[in-house]
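Structure tokens please, single chain.
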Amino acid sequence: MVLRKSQPHAPVYSTERGRMCPACVRPVKECVCSRQQPRPGPGDGVVRVSRETKGRKGAGVTIITGIPLDQAGLLDLARELKRRCGSGGTVKEGRLEIQGDQRELMVAELTKRGWKVKRSGG
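Here you go.
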């Protein structure tokens, strides 16, 4: 299925190619438009650490958002933080998810690395 920019409803996901770029209608890995557009800034410059249980059957994860790093930098940081707290985790949509309630440890570790860190949520 080939769609052009002029078509009003471009697919976001294709079973053949995976996630699609809505602007150039190519697989995200082959996207040409995102490399040419400037990336948004890191927000307000504050790294936020929170806890979330939504959709995880009560199991909590520590969510870290607002880190001003690219995808490769986030993956490296996630690897180091997971090793530091001895648990698993992942990087999804520009945010780090560390298994368990690791908020205090993450705030201390990120502050030590030089970022302004705030606890958010409850």
